[in-house]
Amino acid sequence: MGTVLFSTWQDELVDNRGKGEKDLKDPGTIKLPDEFMKGERIKAFMGWDGIVLRDADVDIVGMCAEYAAAVQKESCGKCFPCRIGTRVVRDLLRKIADGQGRPEHPAKIRELSLNIREGSKCSIGQTGLTPILHALEHFSDAFSRAIADGRKAAAGKYRAAVTAPCMSVCPSSLNIPRYIEDISEGKYGASLAAIRCDTCLPGTLGRVCVRPCESNCRRANIDEAIAIKYLKRFVADYEIEKRKPHHTDRKAPTNKKVAVIGAGPAGLSCAYYLGLKGYGVTIFERLPEPGGMAAVGIPDYRLPRDILQREADIVKEAGVEIRYNVTVGKEVTLTELQSGYDAIFIGVGAQGSSPMGVEGEDEGYRGFIPGVKYLLDINMGKDPYPEGKKVVVVGGGNVAIDCVRSSFRIGKSDVNLVYRRTKKEMPADPVEIKDAEEENVNFHYLCNPKRIIATAGTVTGVECIRMELGEPDESGRRRPVPVQGSEFVIETDILIPAIGQMIDLSFLEEKTGVEITKKNTIFIDPNTFETSRKGIFSAGDCVTGPDVLVRAGGNGRRAADKIDSYLQGMDPEPSLEERFNSLFAAIKVYNKNEKLGIPGGRHTIHLRMLPPDLRKLTFAEVEEGFKTNEALREAARCLRCYRIGMIATA
Amino acid sequence: MITLTINGKKIETRAGKTILEAARDNGIDIPTLCYHEHLLPIGSCRLCIVQVEGYDKPVTSCTTPALDGISVTTQSDALFRMRREFLQLILSYHPLDCPQCDKGGECKLQDLVYAHGIEKVEYAVSREGKAEAYATPLIRYWENRCVLCGRCFRACREISGREAIDIEGSGCDARVSAVNREDCISCGECISLCPVGALTERISPIKKRPWQDERTETTCPHCGFGCQIGLDVFEGRYISKVITNSATEPNQSSLCVRGRFGYDFANSETILRTPRLLVGNNQRSCDLRDAVTFTAEHLKKLRAAEKEMGCIVSPRSTNEEIYLVSQIAKLLGNCPVGSSAYYHTGKVLDAMGQTGLPRTFNYGTLAECDLVIAAGAGLLANNHLLANKAREAVKNIGAKIIVIDPLPTPLTRIADAWLQIEPGTDACLFNSISGRLIAEGKHAREAEELEGFPDYAASLKAYGKDHAPAVCGLSVEAFEKAYSLVGNATRTGVIFGSGISATDESMASLLNFCLLKNLQRGGVVMPVSLQANALGAATVGGGIVPAHEILLNPGLAGLLIFEDNPFVYLDGTPLRNNLSKLDFLALCDALPSPLLDLAHVVVPSSTFAQKNGTFISGDGTVRELRQATGATSRGFEFLRLLLHKLGGVLYASPQHVNETIATNGVLEKSGCRLKTAAGSMKEGFIVRQSPRTQAAPVEKPYKLILRDLFISDYLVSRNSYAKGIDLVYKDALYISPEDASALSVENGDLLVIENDLGSSARSVTVKEGLKKGVLEGVLFKERQNFLKLTAAPTKVISVSLTKG
Question: Which of A299, A460, A490 is nearest to A387 (CA)?
Fold first, then answer.
């Protein structure tokens, strides 16, 4: 990071103008990257919380005029102060920047800006004038001189983009305030269309997303975060419930073809957006149904399979063909695909189970079933081991929870979960843990399996050892340490390891030249999603290792853009949007400590759930979506925290 | 209850209210421009900002909840300055054309600017581009007057359930534009809610200021919903505008296109002015007394000769007039009184009487129902407001909607289940649902105590589980979804229309279903009322017969027609033949109709705007007509004198008749409401020994469903006397895309529709959402083209089609 010359970011004044080397201060509130892209240096940044200058030669007057123009352009027109007021401010600033300013203008701009800031409906108006007010305060000379001299502002290179706290952390970059506002106005179709600009999985994400957006929701600063996930589900369900026609806006077909391996979130997303661009896309899927890990790893009571099926149907409407029951590496080889298609996208999931390192796990005992396989069998409608009634699942992640909760639903009577740390350290979604508790799963914390007990090749129990928490490890969680001599036995018919997933990359033939990392993932250039082999791209769990659905989907879409560039004969590179995403991620858009200065008191609405006794016996969906009135009310809570960031570059 | 302080005053309010609501409930005024009590808070004008103690920033009181213990300031110098600044911003491009603006004198912006002491315009901005003009034949948009408060497009969606207009563009260049012009139904909700003069009606030739008008509150004369409207009358003669009051029930500020734009027939120059007699072949004008004497003499003569006689009343006449006609009929040897009110309302009352279901209800109940079933009810040409009420239930409590209709209706787009059944299979559908409810024990236990339950339950055994989807032409999923919605609802509201009353069988099956769900207590059953006083026509005179039974009776010799034009709903050829043979036909009507040439005496009546009297609306409420222009109804005067001349009571005034009606047992004691049940009817099922489980045998391959059979005469007589309606309505024949391609016809092609009664060529329009084999016929001015295929008013006609 280069030294900052001047900053007002978040009311922390850093003024290094005219200071010696050793008196220089760095702002603690913002880390401004040096470069926007290779060869394009960031000279200044203007945004919702102030101004950050790096170069003295930035024309602050000119930049303010440009910033006001960006604010006015982004103003939605739905409130008076922002709609008209920012136009007046823009016009006045333009006059000054044009050398036509008058001495009374700065005061007028200041007065009006304060009113717009206090009175606007959303953050565009509430924050859009902050840097201008800061400039008027700290660079008043620059304004007076420009006015007095009638001097035109120096030309500069500016780039502006819109973000919001929620948007900035969404791995799929959904335009969240936009689709929530549409809901609050009853425009459910428009809302869904806005979501589909960035993901083809609204019904899926609306149910199972880990929702980083909600933990970056500014509403939480005054009461509670918006139920963004449920709102997404509402519009996705609305289209189905009300039989709304679905229109896919597809570009004219081209003659280029792309093969996609895996119909999981990454594959479907990549295929959908390529399809929309007019490419002929074929997905090769090992299983007889779409969804990949979303279908295999997530039980029906959380994500009914007809939802995934519907999303896949919409992907097909974009001109995508899905060939089920085709395993690449068996029925067709990667090399064969290379000769038949202009580009290939690999989006396979992490469907293998990691070994526990426990005595007996390689013996092939009846009753020893890896977690992902267990869920896959159940999702395919069969009980993996009907004779077994007692179940022990080992692990603390979502797969482990899915295994225990599904066990009741296929008629298992005694269901246990063994985890080596405590509930606090469990990586699974706390909501899911609570649901499992309500369904009467026996949780055994602070113990670990040591040995599988089997009789005549069949599991009869598992020997565990008690653990205690020692010093923190590299993940920051306290390391579990065995308590010597504390061994005990849990009787069981079925033992399910669910401590981690692995990726099977055996289909990658050596001659294709796709490089694999030490972690057994596919190596890609993170800027282009291209593997070490030209024309072969990849995203999803096979690149990141087991990760969340919303990231796989988002990267699938981004990869589609890169494949598009590649097929048009251009060098793939990150889009401006992606570059701004990185910039905003570095700057951090959400400030947990921000005082909003307004009262809250409008709490979020929770979904109705089937009662535990009833739901644990069926695969029927546990949560019932929002009713229309609830969605309207919840959406109206959104503060629409759009904000504009602008950089001056050289 | 929670307590908060506003401007130092402690007030109590219900949790969940906003600061603005709490303030208004307690008489504290906060300025607003975009807020409207029928819409969800918009928050665009920012004028309702208040300061909450302990918080830095002002907040809009329309969107901020009233919280326990907070202290709120609504007036301060700072707040005043901000409000003033925001108003200044609006004036930066809002023209100061108040003298020419329609809204001058009743404009919220005008009031606010004045109240904030703004004397000069501070800012000027230029707007780039120009909106594509949002304009319909009835509505005009003035883009620079528009402050973009958002009420219009919110109302379009929230209240009217349409998506015709929206905001487009960004920043200062944003404008309201017609994003989906075809979706506009000209209901005028947007005009009604526009706080400034940005949306104006464009048909009234009379321009004047509110203080030049006299405003009379009265009841809309079109359908039977009972909307309350205000007539602005200029110089005591011309209605210049229809306005609504957002606090008046049952319609608040809403109306349909007919209510808002279909008033000017009352201003028509062609209104009948003098009585005329036909003596020999010569017509001559006379005064009212001569006309009364002439009529009485002829009627007495026919009575003495024991000839067959009859009377016809309009279901849009007042109770008082209808009552007088019934008394005249008594003196004419108890001759029958016929009305087109019979075809729907008369039949509905008979059937409801058999079941003991209440025939009065409260529209507001619908907003409390978590399931609304709308069966065979178009809810657009009439009872548009019922659809609004259903939407309100969705918006406020998340109600689910089931539409049962072969044709798309305004509610199908928000329906959770649309059972698009084959026409005529309603009975099978309801019986199947009822049978299954009983089989699965999901009916109300109370229903078992009602008369006829065992037989009714037994008769439903004939319906198997998969019966309905197969017979009614539904997907199993749609049926199952509807069935589960019915089973899960805690409070169900049923709206039904002429699609259901079309056959006794379907009505019985629906009413039985309502009993089975105990809706008379745990829900509501709402038959629509097609005409403004259909309920009055069917009850106050002691009962009516179908109009055609009189009008087409070959033995008929003498006839009195009061304000009705049967050419609107009957085939004209046999009608004209029969009426031209009459010995004597007396006609009393306000505007010319084809009957003018057939009558022996014509006496002018008056339109709704000139009458005092009452209607009974669909909910059973007695609503008033108040004279807004001209003298008291000449029609009433004629009937009053005629009754006396024939030997009856001489009533002094409508009020006098009204008092008589109030004591004759039809109304509740208060006189404000129809009695809930006729006589002392017990609740019970209508049991049919062997209900039909299959669809009626097909006669012809296509089913033509007729819309708007009972439109107000004055909209479609000789001419349409309401200019606005004439601009937006047209006759239409719609065909499904499937049938269109099978017959290889396109929009505008001629199709010959034919049945045993006749044939008619019509140009056709292809309509998405229509079911294969179903045609939709919208009847307007060229209605005889359709009516010639019917012997009596019929909802569904079997026809064959050939390309013309």
Answer: A460
Kindly tell me if the per-residue pLDDT of B696 is higher than 90: no
Are residue B603 and residue B725 in the same domain, yes or no? no
> Where along chain A do its domains lie?
6-165+642-649, 257-351+511-573, 354-502
Is residue B288 located within the same domain as residue B229? no
- DSSP for B385-416, written as a single string: HHHHHHHHHHHHH--EEEEE-SS--TTGGG-S
SS3 state at B713: helix
Residues 110-169 of A with CB under 8 A from B: 112, 115, 118-121
Measured distance CA(B112)–CA(B328) in Å, rounded? 58
Comparing CA positions, the residue from A429, A557, A598 lying closest to residue B56 is A598
Residue with tokens 């009614």: B472
Q: What is the largest CA-CA distance in chain A?
A: 97
| Cβ <8 Å between B45 and A79 | yes
Lowest mean pLDDT among B53-62, B357-366, B457-466: B457-466
Tokens of A394: 């080992």
d(CA A344, CA A338): 7
Among residues A86, A125, A88, A225, which one has the least CA distance to residue A169?
A: A225
Contact B172 A636 (CB under 8 A): no
Residues 590-609, chain A, touching B (beta carbon < 8 A): 595-599, 601-602
Interface contact B86-A120, CB threshold 8 A:
no
Which of A80, A118, A627 has the CB atom closest to B89's CB atom? A80
Q: Both tokens of residue A549?
A: 């659905």
Q: Is B676 part of any domain?
A: no
In this structure, the answer to whether residues B553 and B593 fall within a common structural domain is yes
pLDDT digits (tens, 9 = 90+) for A401-440: 999 999 999 999 999 999 999 999 999 989 899 999 999 9
Angle between the N-to-C axes of helices A130-138 and A140-149, in degrees from 0 to 180, rounded to the nearest 10: 80
Residue B198 has pLDDT above 80, yes or no: yes
Q: Which of B611, B635, B662 is the last residue of a domain?
A: B662
Q: Which long-range contacts (CB under 8 A, 24 or more apart) does B758-763 make?
A: B758/B571, B758/B788, B758/B789, B759/B789, B760/B785, B760/B786, B760/B788, B760/B789, B761/B804, B762/B731, B762/B733, B763/B733
- Looking at the complex, does the CB of residue A576 fall below 8 Å from at least one CB of chain B? no
For A629, the closest of B42, B170, B395 (CB atoms) is: B395
Same domain, residue pair B553 and B597: yes
Assigned CATH topology for domain A354-502: FAD/NAD(P)-binding domain (3.50.50)
Fold of A257-351+511-573: FAD/NAD(P)-binding domain (3.50.50)
CA-based nearest residue to A450, from A422, A478, A406, A485: A485
Mean pLDDT, all residues of chain A: 95
Domain that holds residue B757: 702-803
- For the stretch B564-591, pLDDT in tens is 999 999 999 999 999 999 999 999 999 9
pTM of the model: 0.95
Distance in Å, alpha carbon of A85 to nearest chain B alpha carbon: 6
Interchain contact, A598 vs B64, CB within 8 Å:
yes
Q: Domain boundary at B238, B267, B296, which?
A: B267
A332: buried, middle or exposed (CB in 10 Å: 19+, 13-18, 0-12)? middle
- The answer to whether position B220 is within a domain reads yes
Of all residues in chain B, the one with the smallest CA distance to A639 is B63
Q: Check whether residue B259 and residue B285 sit in a common domain.
A: no
Whether residue B695 is contained in a domain is answered as no
pLDDT at B660 over 70: yes
User: For residue A22, what pLDDT band results from cuts at 50, 70 and 90?
Assistant: confident
Q: What's the CATH number of domain A6-165+642-649, 1.20.1440.230, 1.10.10.60, 1.25.40.10, 3.40.50.460? A: 1.20.1440.230
Mean pLDDT value across chain B: 94
